[in-house]
Amino acid sequence: MMANPDKDIKKNCLDRFVTFLCEKNEFGKIVSGDFPFTGLQFEVESALRFKARNAPVYPVVSERPNYHKILFAYYVYRLDFQNASSTMYQYARRLGLVISAVAAQLVQKSAKNFVISQGSTLHDIVAEQARSYLSAINTLALTPEDMQWVLYNEGTEKENSRKRRKFESGVAHSTTSDLVENDEITEALSIYNNRTQITLVQNTLILTSNMKKEYALTMAKLTLASTFPHVLESSNNSLDTLLPLLMRADRFVDAVDLVVLFEGDLSVVFREFASKCVFTQLEN
Description:
This protein has 284 residues and is mainly alpha-helical.
């Protein structure tokens, strides 16, 4: 392969070889440099990036290679922490699209216990999203302070959202998939996965502070899931939505931490806490 003088054939063979190693769970040989790919490192990275962008991110538990995690390991091994962080942030956002697609169809059902495939529930996907945000945050912290940011392309997410809205209004239809055990979820995820390629529309600068806020909201959902199962089914991940639920669940420390992170008004939390203390005292 390396000796092939035809660049196009060489690139095609490289793509196939990289895919073969990943599918055989031998991606460590790519990451660690067992195969040096002299002069072709850019092509190797491009192949992994393409796979990460286009391979399904569901189910969370799968025998299929997770190209986001492979690409993340590839960057970390080369001490490219900024791109490593960007990779996991993209993964977290893509999981968010899956969560929204699933939740939109299960809003009237017991989504938290619904098995999407191979043991993955909606709770599993949200937990995986939280881990991805945390990986992105921790990896970005290893970069110099002036490099603690990533660029996020919102174009693909907007296209996916458009398709999801069409599905929810009954316009879009998809084919049966053997990855999902429920027809409605099959359709939602099929629409998500069979997206069209679009031109780069808008890059958003994402700082560590932005990631921490998204991570905190995701963790708040997981914290509340046992008390308010419906919270996993909601696509409205905002301070205004989750803060009242945290206070109703008596998670006042978590509520204070969330408000401080968002630089909000703590008086709301203190008033609610004081009211509960008075009410408890009167009951006793």
